[in-house]
Design goal:
It is built from 14 helices and 15 strands. The chain has 398 residues and is α/β, with parallel strands linked by helices. The longest helix has 19 residues. 39% of the residues are buried.
Length: 398
């Protein structure tokens, strides 16, 4: 047994396992960013598991002060890979340190968040876990996901090709695939169908401070990709300003926006061409990444929010997105185009067609004028979607 595993064994030896709980390793293939929605979601999932009494350890990547790439569990280094290309290859090939930890610490379930990274070493790793009697599930955040790679560079598309070759083998090692879709099987494996959850403790209630009689502010929050379809709203905003308007409308985009979204790609029109065409630069405000109080302040200025408007570009019809649930948790009305059974018939939701048509901003204003549901009442509709409830459904299924 390696020295690092011995260190972990000593660290956790004093922890007693209650008979009604499980020892779980939550496995990710990336690091954490406090401004990232993905990071916040993972942290909320882990919190939900712990709220149900389970002992959860978190495996991720991080960089040491000396610049070395490390695999860490909780706050301790499990494996130091060093620097450079060799380190990058080693961390994608070597999973033995995680296997040793799972066996030494008597982990009962590995919950892995897919990174579209199926490879022979990963298949072998999960095969060994199953032979050791450790149950495994893999969460696929969006499905299908192949179309998401259309606008990516050559390296990313090659990564997808490798994943396509080995993902059915990887799925075969699992006890189930966690999905937020309605699919009953994915890659030949049964699914565990849940909703994206919410952590109401971490999401403040929307404070309605905006006066919508003279101007309306709209917020769109995402790590922006083509399937968010914010170009559809910008296009609609441009058409709105072609006419004589009685109220000014502002769109606040919060999140990192890549050049492919700004100038356009094969996957979607760009934001910038519409902004230039209609001369609306003053009405589309890019905030970049925000979190905490800074994000709350932008939300409180806004009366309406934008969810995904182009999931059809990724070949997705039905999905239970995290963003819809976050908006509802804050208590702000919002718009989206996909099918989401948790929200499709809610009175605070506006639906637009799943196509390339520009959003009718006049219709948005009419919706805002007639939607007078208090934020606390909107929030109550998602209390049952807590991560505590959603994650326990996974445990019950394995």
């Amino acid at each position: 047994m390696s020295k690092s595993i011995c260190t972990f064994h000593e660290k956790y030896l004093s922890l007693s396992l209650k008979t009604e709980t499980m020892k779980i390793l939550f496995l990710t293939y990336h690091g954490f960013d406090p401004a990232s929605g993905i990071t916040k979601k993972i942290q909320a999932q882990i919190k939900g598991l712990r709220q149900n009494g389970h002992e959860v350890h978190v495996c991720s990547y991080s960089y040491a002060p000396n610049g070395h790439l490390c695999r860490v569990i909780d706050d301790a280094v499990l494996k130091d890979y060093g620097r450079g290309l060799r380190a990058a290859i080693s961390q994608r090939m070597g999973y033995g340190c995680i296997y040793d930890f799972c066996v030494a610490e008597k982990i009962e379930l590995v919950y892995a968040r897919s990174y579209m990274n199926a490879t022979p070493p990963l298949v072998s790793f999960f095969r060994k876990l199953r032979k050791a009697g450790i149950r495994c599930v893999m969460e696929i955040p969006t499905y299908p996901y192949d179309f998401e790679f259309k606008a990516y560079d050559w390296n990313q598309r090659m990564r997808l090709r490798v994943d396509q070759m080995f993902r059915r083998q990887l799925a075969a090692q699992m006890n189930g695939i966690v999905t937020f879709s309605d699919e009953e099987t994915i890659f030949g494996q049964r699914t565990i169908r849940i909703s994206n959850g919410v952590d109401l403790d971490m999401i403040p209630l929307h404070r309605v401070v905006a006066d919508t009689t003279k101007e309306v502010h709209v917020i769109a929050v995402a790590e922006v990709h083509s399937w968010h379809g914010f170009d559809r709203f910008i296009h609609g905003l441009g058409r709105y300003y072609e006419k004589t308007v009685s109220r000014r409308v502002f769109l606040h985009i919060v999140g990192e926006v890549w050049p492919a979204e700004m100038e356009g790609s094969s996957a979607a029109p760009g934001f910038a061409p519409y902004i230039r065409q209609y001369g609306i630069a003053d009405y589309v405000i890019f905030h970049g990444k925000l979190f905490g109080k800074a994000l709350d302040e932008v939300f409180d200025k806004c009366s309406f929010a934008v969810g995904s408007l182009a999931r059809h570009r990724s070949g997705i019809t039905v999905i239970k997105t995290l963003k819809n649930r976050e908006y509802a948790s804050r208590g702000i009305p919002f718009v989206y185009s996909e099918q989401d059974s948790d929200f499709d018939h809610q009175p605070y939701v506006m639906k637009v067609p799943a196509d390339e048509s520009p959003v009718d901003v006049e219709a948005v204003l009419q919706f805002v004028d007639h939607c007078h549901i208090p934020p606390q009442d909107i929030r109550r509709t998602v209390e049952h979607l807590s991560w505590k409830n959603q994650m326990q459904q996974v445990i019950d299924n394995v």
